[in-house]
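User: Fold this, then the next.

Assistant: Folding the first:
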Amino acid sequence: MKEFETAFEASYAPTEEDFRTAAAKAAGVPLGKIAEVRLLRRSIDARSRKILRRYRLAAYLQGEVPPVTASYSLSQDVSQKPPVIVIGAGPAGLFAALRLICSGRRPIILERGKNVHERKYDIAAISRTGCLNPDSNYCFGEGGAGTFSDGKLYTRSNKRGDVGAVLKTFTDFGADPMIRIDAHPHIGSDRLPAIVEAMRSHIVECGGEYHFSSRVTDLQQTPGGGWKVLCDNGSVFEAPEVILATGHSASDIYRLFMRKGWAVEAKGFALGVRAEHPQEHIDRAQYHGPRMPWLPAAEYSLVEQVDGRGVFSFCMCPGGILVPSSTEPGTVVTNGMSNSRRNSRWANAGIVTSVEPEDVPGGPEAMLDFREEVERRCYEVSASFCAPAQRMTDFVKSRRGKSVVSALPRTSYAPGAFATDLNEVLPDFVADRLRKAFPAFDRKLRGYYTSEALLLAVESRTSSPVRLPRDPQTLQHIDLQNLYPCGEGAGYSGGIVSSAIDGIRAAERICNILPY
């Protein structure tokens, strides 16, 4: 097998014959010796005005057997097998359940929110009527926060698990096969719900269980070392093991642990704003001119060190829209998403800075309170889900006591934007860093710092502000036998793929499968 890279102008769609010819040249063999060429990765290279698509390929010679990519879509009847309770139906919980089935265990999935179809109506109601269901919204419900937040699958978690197997599993349940080779794979919020439903159907057909609208209110250890799980609807479930995959917004679970005296640690997270530009601005900056029809909506990734801390872009959504991601009444939280075509007129990204435990003394509860306080302050500005907003240039020029608030440009944020000085809304140390970062970003991406860019507050759900500490080998909570915290909610992942991998690892420890 020979891995190699080749490139073509972005306007040209290479054929199988083009790849075979490049493979023969790279391997130094006649064309007839090439048995198969596999596309491993493709990406856009816009570093010069001649924009290229780069392809990484693997060439297999006659007699060589290409490897088979693993998947977690194995079907088998586990209806009579020992149960494992999985709390949360986001990517960590879903992939934990799939992995349990592969290993002959029966997953019982408890999800506080609704199924993905019913969840759509609750999400629409936030913008249409201002009505928020605390258990069914952009963060909570089947599929987790990622289902209606773009479906980006880019990760750097290769050392922790088999990323290829996660992507292959998504394609087995209906995702576009190109996610397996794109440098920044993306499913889209319009397609991901059907994939999540297909995963659920598979789990149920294999004998697993789903229980929606079942918010966990208590966890109790049983005399035999197992667990009893109590839900708000009166349901009670018992199993030898529990996988806790509740997501980064499950503050009630963290506070439950604190009340019981179980270990919870404060950890750093990131907080800031959503920056929304006309997509055309980002296209021109990245492609050195107007975007051609054969090019995707341009992305960006920015980072700057300010006063010893990082300010960086997060969850960049080209051709996307902004969405309200609050999970509690009386709070405003913003997030971004894109559909599969990424064809809106806007580009948005979280621009955030790190908030460390030393910034908020008082331990894990203080970190949770800090996040909630900022979110409530944003709601108080307009007494609605309208987001406090300000033009980027006005925000940078403004100081407390010297407000600059111009009329706002159009925004994709459906509840609307409320003009205010964000320096009065954000914590001082956050606002100070952001003001310094935006002009610096312009030196890296010309035109980024502009009056046509709108900032909306607050982007606060980048990750969990606390961690549920676990043994690095067994993955069990350090105080609690047979309880396995995993995913973003436990503080051990960030994003769909890394959360899926963490859920898989928890399932494998339960089934006594050795780590990679």
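Now the next one, as you asked:
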Amino acid sequence: MKIPHTFTIVFSLVILCAVFTWLVPGGEFERKTVEIDGITRNIVVADSFQYTENAPQTWQVFTAFFKGFNKVSNIIIFILMIGGAFWILNATNAINIGIFSFLRSTEKLQRNKVLKKIGVNNIVITLIMIMFSLFGAVFGMSEETIAFIIIFVPLAISMGYDSVTGVLMCYVAAHVGFAGAMLNPFTIGIAQGLSGLPTFSGLEYRALCWIILTIIAIVFTLWYAHRVKKNPKKSFMYDLDSYWREKSAETENIQEKQKSSRATWFVYSVVSLALIYCSFAFTYSIITIGNSTFNIILFPIIAAIFIPFGFYSTYKSVHSYILSLLWLTIVILVVGVLGYGWYVGEIAGLFFAMGLTSGFAFSIKFDKIIRLFLEGCKDIMNAALVVGIAGGIIIILEDGKIIDTILYGVSQTMSNAGQTGSVGAMYFIQSVINILIPSGSAKAALTIPMMAEFSDIIGISRQLTVLAFQFGDGFTNMITPASGVLIGCLGMARIPYTKWIKFILPFLCILLIMGFVLLLPPLFWQFNGF
């Protein structure tokens, strides 16, 4: 069978949701405004559901595209800017040369008998996944993974794997960490605030859950990567990955590093001066991790490391300097998110600046840089359009006034289910709702007030209710077509949605089962915070 385009699948789901607005009665909860950690949010009032006249959607399926673009415009613009910035970076061949240099280094490490037995590639994949899982667990990395797909997919291809392995290394690792989060302010922080629990309480058991889930993700990835390397045709993407293999083959012969030009030295000087300025203007950065804050002189440290390292890189070659710019961008990204509350707007601007400076350092004329940027936007446009129509799914459900009815209906399934059954029902409900509403903060405001009161009635810890929400909010992010992040990552990796679903479902089932198993110990034994 011919695989339908992702846009076709998502638009069909929009039509299906419109059909539901004719079949499901309308309803709504009353909502009230509360302030959590200085942020005002509208939350559902428990036991306030009332049936209302429904609003069947007809021609609105066509306006859902426009409204979806409005709803997720930040993600769409982010994808376009990232695509354009990396197109400029790719024109310098710096990433490809860096990948081949990295692979040559790993080949040298294979001479060590211990490392050879373990497998250097296995160590590389494991370390990368731990890092991204930790980012997801600590500060809720999600949208940021889109920018890393363009790095790790070519790396995975060059290591003898496939594009799916590249997505597993960063996107899936980050979202497994997101599900097993310890300090994620966007899920745990909000949900605990709405439940009246101390912020980031129950940290010890959550840390255990994160370790278990991360190990499962790493083992699964290593198993799949080994399977693909042993027989590349077993890859779900063997035929479609020809694009990436051809790209890799084109650059295998481009391994000579060019000497730095005056433009390279000029860009190095400007970036160094900018870091010196930041060292004085933002001498101390307040990094917040959970309830802990650290006042650190980050920019002076970054400047002290980059200036001599950047000088050495510039002296070696222009490609080495551009790679040092990429690393600087990633470091500043982490600092910006943890210390200054950056979101997709600031991150997109950061990568755009990286793309421009990379082009200038490579002595590309400004007009050519702009043309390369536009070519990158054009190349990634399909993914951006799909993200827009995916945003229309929730628009149809909200305008049809059935989203609250669906929530009320599934919440009634918990009645008379017992404690174990109720915990399982909460977990199932959160997982299903997450397919329609991927936003963790929005879903917390919608469900936690009711779930918290219900847990009091049946004698379940509110902390356990938050944990059920946390797992339910995380795992199904990997399949929901309403997620702009998932669609954006798949678009960057050139993986069709149907191919991805076929691949990820078995792994998702493992995570869902493990999530339920991890919910049971706090139900029967006492854990700190529960």
